[in-house]
Amino acid sequence: MKKLKFALLLLCLLAYSSSYAQDDLLSLLGEEEETTEYAKASFKTTRVINGHSLENVAGGVMDMKISHRFGMLNSGAYNLFGLDQASIRIGLDYGINDRLMVGFGRSSHNKVYDGFAKLKLLRQSSGKRTMPISLVVLSGVYLKTIEWQQPERDNYFSSRLEYTHQLIVGRKFSEGTTIQFMPTVVHRNLVPTTEDTHDVILIGAAARQKLTKRVAINAEYYYALPDQLSPDRKNSLAIGFDIETGGHVFQLHFTNSTSMIEPGFMTETIGDWGKGDIHFGFNVSRVFTIRKPKKLEG
Q1: Is 292 a domain residue?
Q2: Which segment of the chain is annotated as a signal peptide (predicted)?
Q3: Number of C-alpha atoms within 13 angstroms, CB side, residue 129?
Q4: Where residue 163 sits, what CATH number does that domain have?
């Protein structure tokens, strides 16, 4: 029995030493063990324009966002082509780790408080571990605090709540080109008309094309499936530019949507691009490192 134990111990030592010898041999030959490379900077921020992108803030990083939408360009010179009117959203996003991000914000339009969680299930990668796409799941809750239009009737707190659930699937095809798709469900506890459904299904698409080292053009479009919204509602379309300057990212854009939260720009847009119902706006993003996180594998 002692001889058997000695033989097993010797075999383990030989195997252990041979693995190190193999690594040393690979090093001497100039060969390194294959690693996994993850796609980075598919978009410059966590938002394409109005909606979310494939990207999360890194773990331990806080992202402060200020979003601004002016009035419609066709409102005329009296309103300085919309510059006299404005809606704003201020938000804070935080990376729990490199996969999970949470955030909250407040919008002046309809006086909405919002919160969300965003989890990256799959990360596009190459090398030792190959994954052709990135897959993200997003869930948000929204609380309207604007005064009731009919305060004399019975109004319920639950009627102020709305929800969004979204999948984001996309791929960075090259250093300058990214495309993503966003199937989405919006639930509204209270709908404005009998023609509106409580659950609205939409299909979104977005793309980014890098123009220079610090400038890119973005576009996004959300298509609501038929017979869910009243006839005056329009699909949301936005086009803009990302400009990176150190720790800031400026996004300058044009959109037919006033709201900057998912239920708003997906189900409440009334602007018609063909009639000039277009808002000029901008987003400003500034990141702060709160803590240095541990790296997650996979």
Answers
A1: yes
A2: 1-21
A3: 11
A4: 2.40.160.40
